[in-house]
């Protein structure tokens, strides 16, 4: 039983780390601000959830698990608000997103003004 | 004191919200404390009472800050949302590793059919929480959404999330 739980925990942590790494690669790779924001979304949601669930399985009974659950809940409530604030700030300051038809999909910032 | 003028209907509807806020704060305090001696518990009770008093003085205890009925209906929605978030994560991670040629970013407005502000907030937050779509702006019932893929926008326009949030409201 103990081995199963610790293996599940290790699996969750590994998956979470992979998702964090993917989010980081996405931030570097994607062409403009808005698309990079979607990459951050991965780190915000499933990666954080996987790492926290992995940590919960390290100590499945007791107060620590409830506290980790609270951290997960807070992350889920707060991160969309932060993302929305960032996106709205960019949008209100006339940062025009790349559109599908735009040929420039390189790694550099595209300045449209 | 403005609440003395038309107090009766307001006061009656206020008490359940205060009780609900009290229970939430108490659960939050107990989970974060972990010490259950009489002194610490009474200090916790005092701080909860202080928070309730301040919240009441600030006039922020109402159906928006402390909704009563939505917590009963929301677990089902959360389960569905978790499924959607996992699927969206897989899709975004796939496109991160496939590279920039495979993405098709779009910015459009979609219509939110929720009647209350609370419903619109839940809908917009759900959109942002799902990787691949970010709610950029909300004006009236129009939500400006930026999506990583054209497919994401088509899924939103199909309106399943919209309908499910609407069902939470009434």
Fold topology:
The complex is a heterodimer of chains A (113) and B (170).
Chain A: H1 2-29, H2 33-58, H3 63-92
Helix pairs in contact in A: 1-2, 2-3
Chain B: H1 7-33, H2 38-57, H3 70-98, E1 106-111, H4 117-129, E2 133-139, E3 142-147, H5 150-158, H6 160-169
Antiparallel strand pairs in B: 1-3, 2-3
Helix pairs in contact in B: 1-2, 3-6, 4-6
Greatest chain-chain contact: A-B, 40 and 36 residues
Q: How many strands of chain A?
A: 0
The biggest beta sheet of chain A reads: none
Low-confidence runs of at least 5 consecutive residues of chain A: 102-113
Structural class of chain A: mainly alpha
Q: Compute the average pLDDT of chain B.
A: 84
Q: Provide the β-strand percentage band of chain A.
A: under 5%
The count of domains of chain B is 2
How many strands appear in the DSSP assignment of chain B?
3
Written description of the protein model:
The complex is a heterodimer of chains A (113) and B (170). With 113 residues, chain A is mainly α. In chain A, 74% of the residues lie in helices and 0% in strands. Chain A has helices at residues 2-29, 33-58, 63-92. In chain A, helix 1 runs antiparallel to helix 2 and helix 2 packs antiparallel against helix 3 (63-92). The longest helix of chain A has 30 residues, at 63-92. Chain A is elongated and about 55 Å long. Chain B has six helices and three strands; from the N terminus they run H-H-H-E-H-E-E-H-H. Chain B has a three-stranded antiparallel β-sheet. In chain B, helix 1 (7-33) packs antiparallel against helix 2 (38-57) and helix 3 (70-98) runs antiparallel to helix 6. Classes of the chains: A mainly alpha (113), B mainly alpha (170). At the A-B interface, helix 1, helix 2 and helix 3 of A face helix 1, helix 3, helix 4 and strand 2 of B.
């Amino acid at each position: 039983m103990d081995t199963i739980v610790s293996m599940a925990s290790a699996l969750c942590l590994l998956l979470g780390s992979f998702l964090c790494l993917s989010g980081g690669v996405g931030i570097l790779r994607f062409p403009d601000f808005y698309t990079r924001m979607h990459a951050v979304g991965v780190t915000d949601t499933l990666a954080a959830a996987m790492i926290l669930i992995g940590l919960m399985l390290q100590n499945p009974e007791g107060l620590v698990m409830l506290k980790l659950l609270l951290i997960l809940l807070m992350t889920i409530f707060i991160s969309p608000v932060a993302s929305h604030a960032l996106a709205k700030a960019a949008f209100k300051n006339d940062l025009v997103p790349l559109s599908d038809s735009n040929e420039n999909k390189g790694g550099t910032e595209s300045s449209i003004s | 004191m403005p609440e003395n003028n038309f107090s009766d209907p307001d006061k009656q509807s206020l008490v359940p919200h205060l009780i609900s806020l009290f229970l939430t704060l108490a659960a939050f305090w107990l989970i974060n404390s972990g010490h259950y001696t009489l002194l610490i518990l009474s200090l916790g009770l005092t701080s909860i009472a202080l928070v309730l008093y301040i919240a009441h003085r600030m006039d922020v205890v109402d159906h928006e800050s402390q909704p009563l009925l939505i917590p009963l209906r929301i677990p089902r929605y959360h389960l569905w949302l978790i499924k959607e978030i996992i699927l969206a994560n897989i899709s975004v991670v796939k496109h991160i590793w496939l590279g920039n040629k495979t993405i098709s970013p779009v910015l459009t407005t979609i219509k939110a059919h929720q009647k209350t502000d609370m419903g619109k907030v839940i809908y917009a937050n759900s959109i942002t929480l799902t990787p691949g779509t970010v709610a950029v702006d909300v004006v009236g019932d129009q939500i400006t959404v930026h999506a990583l893929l054209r497919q994401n926008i088509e899924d939103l326009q199909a309106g399943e999330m919209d309908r499910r949030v609407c069902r939470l409201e009434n």
